[in-house]
Amino acid sequence: MIKDSLIKALSDQINAEYYSAYLYLTMSACADRAGYRGIANWLFVQAKEEMAHGVHICQHLLERGAAPSFSEVKAPPASYKSIKEIFEKVLAHEQYVSEKINKIASLAMREDDHATYNFIMWYVNEQVEEESNADDLVAKLTNIGDNSGLLYNLDAQLAARQFIDPFAAAGTAN
Ligand code: OFO
């Protein structure tokens, strides 16, 4: 039995995951239009991961016998001044999402809901990795500055990222 407060918090998180996907898709399109297809690829893979997170949370609610609620996904900003600004915004967004996830973990503890607590801990760990990845890219872009050759090197590296369904491996399913 999952309490209404946690059904609401997890439903809100589904919306936040889809907003994240929408945000990264917009950023991916901006990078692609600016000629950075590798960076666009990295952001596109990130958007796919966020959608997988939203589906996973939805499945968890259904498995618990709860009805998730779905609300409107707001439109993300449509343009960015630079690739560095994109990744600064990615980092700030991931920090914001980490706060939301931590609040769900705290609520699950207060409600004595060990199943939700256990479920949400996967996201707590995921956020550590996502903040670290974004932080690393912001640092690299700071070092690159306005050296376009180095920026294209980074673009080539980020072209290699591939989407791996985070819940396909054993032990991370619902
Ligand atoms: Fe959904 O993983 Fe970060 O935001």
Which descriptors apply to this entry?
binds hydroxy diiron-OXO moiety, single chain, disordered C terminus, mainly alpha, 174 residues
Task: Describe this structure in a few short sentences.
The chain is mostly helical and 174 residues long.
Low-confidence regions: 170-174
What portion of residues is helical? Answer: over 70%
Distance between the termini: 16 Å
What coarse outline follows from CA principal-axis ratios? elongated
How many beta-strand elements? Answer: 0
Summarize the main sheet.
none
Task: Report the CATH architecture.
Answer: Up-down Bundle
- CATH topology term: Ferritin
Separate helix tally: 5
What is the H/E string? HHHHH
